[in-house]
């Protein structure tokens, strides 16, 4: 029997997976800034800027229990539904670039 039929088949690698650099809204609490874009988030050290992960698009997330009360204007590549709701509820703006 050939070797490829004798060995077990394990795992799956999705070739269409999209990787993101993730930013939680809770990391913005306490900052005096109100306008954020990708370059400013990298400068503040909230996102990795170098290496392999520095090339990924940015996605803003919010946890279910999160109480975010700041008015902010954020420019990112993607937003979770909860993050968009929290930003809009506080009078901010979530802009997809």
Query: How many distinct beta strands?
Result: 6
Could you spell the SSE succession in H and E letters? HEEHEEEHE
> Which oligomeric form is depicted?
single chain
CATH class: Alpha Beta
The strand order across the widest sheet is 1-3-5
Strand content: 15-25%
Helix content: 10-25%
Low-confidence stretches: none
Structure annotation, total helices: 3
Describe the structure.
This protein is α/β, with parallel strands linked by helices and 97 residues long. It has a single domain (16-96), classed as Ribosomal Protein L15, Chain: K, domain 2, CATH 3.100.10. Helices cover 20% and strands 21% of the residues. The chain is built from three helices and six strands; from the N terminus they run H-E-E-H-E-E-E-H-E. The strands form two sheets. A three-stranded parallel beta sheet has the order 1-3-5. Strands 2-4-6 form a three-stranded parallel beta sheet. The protein is elongated and about 65 Å long.
